[in-house]
Amino acid sequence: LSMAFRDVNARRHVGLQQLSALALAGRTLLGPTKSCKFIVDESTNQSTLICSAFRLFESLDLTSAAGQLLNETIQAQNKEFKTGMSTLLFLTGVWSSAVVECLQQNVPISAIVSVMSEGLNSCCERVQCLQRSIHDVNKELCSSSVQSKTCQIGCGNPQISHYFQKEISAPEKVTPVNSHSQPEDCNFNKCLVSPLAGFGSVASLVKPAGDKSTSLISESSSFASGCSKQKLTHSRYFSTLGSSAYPCQCSGLGHLVMALSHGNQTSTKLLQSIVAYQQERAECSGSSQFNVAEIVTCCLLGLPESYSCVSLGFVTLVSPEQATVTKHLEDRPLHILLVDGDLTEKYRHLGFNRPRNVRTILKSPILQEDRAGDSWLSNMLDILISFEVNLVLVKGNVCENLMERCVANSILVIGSVTWDVLRAFEEVTSAQPVTYLTQLNAACVGSGAQVELWKACDGRAVDLGELVPVRVKAQGIALLTAVLTTTVASKVQLIEDQFWTSVYRLHHALNDKKVFLGGGAVELLCLSHIQMLAEQPSQPASRDSVKEFPSPWLAAAGMEYRSVVLQALASGWKQYLSVVMCNAAEAASELEACTAVDHHLKKAADSGSPSTYILQEFRKGALLRGGSGPLADHGEGFKVYDNVTAKTEAWRRALDLVLLVLQTDAEIVTGPKRSQLLNSGVSSEFMFL
């Protein structure tokens, strides 16, 4: 009977097996060194390169209920944190397999649920000792970088302006920038804040062509990597730094950006430029040091990735016809209009109620509709012309016919603009958003906006064929656009996702005001802690067991299965660390990785204080290193850190999903009443009788 029960038990929980199978697809997406996947659309034969669990499941056609629940859980994690989805997916898979193994050993569902839940809660409490405040991390990173003479990657230092594109009013020929050298009396604050005072106000920083001293402004005024070939004199990859390395300004967040980037160099440098700019602006205005709402992205297909840069204002793609209007409007102060909705005839705002008991009778419906459409187009165009509007930013869609008429009248209309962009221009142009053009009055029209064709780092306007990048700006605007470039169409979504992941990691770290030690330190302590609890002898509830598991009910119930369930929970952490090491080439196989993890566990146990041992190994950069590269190290003097809330929420969501599917499967097959008997630990023989 027992064997038959185990067989039925395994077949019954199909949902857990589906979760485990789906999670296998994301194993290579775990850790800082990921293996990207190509997702092919069968209908169009177009492929997209993805490197996150969110994009993977977004592209899959999921038919099972368990798969849909997993997708919704990943979407929720992405919506709230933009990071931790791969961890969530992997732990869901390994814990699903672990729960199935527990079921095969006749462990009651109630014991699995209670012990795993309390075990994870105990882990979350235990790893709090590995949290570090943002202030302490900044101080430590800056101190380490000064000692190793590698503080050249952004704590408010001039070289990150290499990625920053600004306004220039200067002689035609200027000295190219050497992004890795330090000019005397150079103040990066002035370099970044000057454009806020007015366009062309950085001219004083430009030196004549004959002046051989270093300038902060390149010939094209575009600080993009790789656009000018300069001799590299300062880099954390080379030791030829000499005495020109200068002390780090510890008030900056540049090192924290890098510590949270997990090796994404391009996004790191762009974000460091943004952070430095916003910090300088915050010192002047008293605003937040880092504001995600003031950042947007624009992806350009057709330029090398080295052309990626940060541009002040709003950069977007428009049609060639709109680009012609932009060229016509260049160097002119424009009247700007903001539309909070669609600019179409049939658009109605949310909550609009059509009048009841109204019937419209048309003798010739098609003709009448055409005339009504022409009348609406003419009225809308007349309104724009009467208020001398040159530029319209629309949150939603724009009627194509109206767009054509506006182009013919030299009015630039840009649709699909986010609310953050509208708000940024509202603040600096005094424009007031309207829902319909019929609401327009003189007070709603803003002034002081400018448009121009966006220029690459070589100073030339870029024509990408079907779409042309343009920039909308205004004096004093805080909005920044990260212009992300690539020549590979399938990488467009990937580089944008990577950038936003870096942005939100910093955002959540600042909100939490603390970070975890990275590189597997937290997971290793979880594994050590759970194994220690599992090795404790199963006995009636004692003060010690109640102390470890705060719930008295848990300490008294299911002690017989406590060790088995805790070992199952620990197996998830062990597999997590093993796969991360394999993906990062720290181990040739999972067997070798498991051996390395076991070695650390033994040394941590022998030390008497696992947390102290892990902290010491982290500081030495020797944590989970078994091969060619560091997991907890970005190079000399730099460590990896993780978000606190995003990581722990990924754990909780993974376990909650597994336990939900476990209990749901039991109720579907056995019914609620019999499921309650099974959950309560009734023997399998009784159930079959």
UniProtKB/TrEMBL annotation:
<dbReference type="InterPro" id="IPR027409">
    <property type="entry name" value="GroEL-like_apical_dom_sf"/>
</dbReference>
<dbReference type="InterPro" id="IPR027413">
    <property type="entry name" value="GROEL-like_equatorial_sf"/>
</dbReference>
<dbReference type="GO" id="GO:0045494">
    <property type="term" value="P:photoreceptor cell maintenance"/>
</dbReference>
<protein>
    <submittedName>
        <fullName>Bardet-Biedl syndrome 12 protein</fullName>
    </submittedName>
</protein>
<dbReference type="Pfam" id="PF00118">
    <property type="entry name" value="Cpn60_TCP1"/>
</dbReference>
<dbReference type="InterPro" id="IPR042984">
    <property type="entry name" value="BBS12"/>
</dbReference>
<dbReference type="InterPro" id="IPR027410">
    <property type="entry name" value="TCP-1-like_intermed_sf"/>
</dbReference>
<dbReference type="GO" id="GO:0051131">
    <property type="term" value="P:chaperone-mediated protein complex assembly"/>
</dbReference>
<dbReference type="InterPro" id="IPR002423">
    <property type="entry name" value="Cpn60/GroEL/TCP-1"/>
</dbReference>
<dbReference type="GO" id="GO:0005524">
    <property type="term" value="F:ATP binding"/>
</dbReference>
